[in-house]
Fold these 2 entries.
Entry 1:
Amino acid sequence: MDLYQIFITHNRAWTIREIVCFSILFFIVAVILFRLVGRRKIALSQAVAGLLLLLFLGIVFASTVFTRNPTGVHRYELEVFWSWKAVRQGSREMLKENLLNMILLFPAGLLLPFVFHRKTSWWKGLLIGLTISGMIETCQLVFCRGLFEWDDMIHNGFGCMVGCILSSGLMRCTDT
């Protein structure tokens, strides 16, 4: 199954209300960012990277929380690395899910150094990834729209960190 099939299988289309709400939020943030650019408080590249990050996170939160149907049950798995135990027992589906969770916040990590307009350390990428993932997992638990699990936070944080390392490395290469 390719990424597009996974995406359309697990996500319903956005409602008009969701599109309008996100569009208003995006517009407000865009106005604020471009005013900051006009006042020379941030660079244009930071504003563009910030808007791309907001758009990306909107899609991520929609696909992992808001477009999922509520189950009515608060589901959670509190054992750390339980998913890798399943992989060791031969679960290819769990391996695929773990790898997809690592990839999920990789683009956010790529954008972070551009948002901050400087190289960003690996631990900041990890911390930001863990924070974003923690918000996703908490929303899934509170709204009964998925499985709260530490493994997802670890995998998402790792993917964000790797993206941050690569992007910061590219910035280092272009500085010389």
Entry 2:
Amino acid sequence: MPDDLIPIGRFSRMSRLSIKALRFYDEQGLLTPARVDPASGYRFYRRGQAGRAEAIRVLRLIDMPVTEIRDLLADDDPELTGKRLSAHRERLRDRLAEQERMLRFLERLIDRGGNVMPYQVTVKEVAANPVAGLRLTASLATIGAVLQQGFGTVAGALGAAGVAPAGPPFVVYHDVIDERTEGEVEICLPVPAGTPVPSGPVYYREVPGGPVASTIHRGPYQEISPAYHVVTGWIEEHGIVAHGAPREIYLNDPQSAGSPEELITELQFPIDRVPPA
């Protein structure tokens, strides 16, 4: 065996990457062993691979996705590599700004005893709503990306069919999603009744009408939780029952809103009946 080959255990200590991580990066084509013993399957690395291992370790520490690391390390063009790093730097800046904004929201939430803004609950009858829909699974960490991808998929299907949306987009939350639990969300774009939707994951259905308890949230989507607290509390206080999954209806376009604080979202909870006046 060549003298410069290092067993995976020693290379793990040298690179500060676990054996499990090294095996994963091998499977992903990021860091291929210099030699794999054909009998035992044991992996060996060369000292010269330590630099690539360190680049991978640092890039994962700053949350660059594995697929992007693969593309970045495959580039021979320094200019293209620089552009990839700059794009990730901008994502990190956006994420930091989002985290700082959420910390300010938390401070307001604590200072005001959980009441960030006054919510007025109203009851109204809504008509059945024909939609082009798409069900996806999301976690708390992925919900933003899942919704963005889902709306793009549904809008693309409608565009291919030559159909324009007939109302504001909304999401039906079929499950409670938190940091430990994934759940199903349904992306909905209203369409004219009877609209044919191309075959594939996007389908046509009617979201049932009926009475709903509703409130308006003004501000970033991530700060809507207190509206849920208010509406569900109102439902309990009036002795009625939530009769279906809640819906978030996005009444203005994030692209045209001047800032996240100008976003307007209607939260609707279907209920079994209208309480007496």
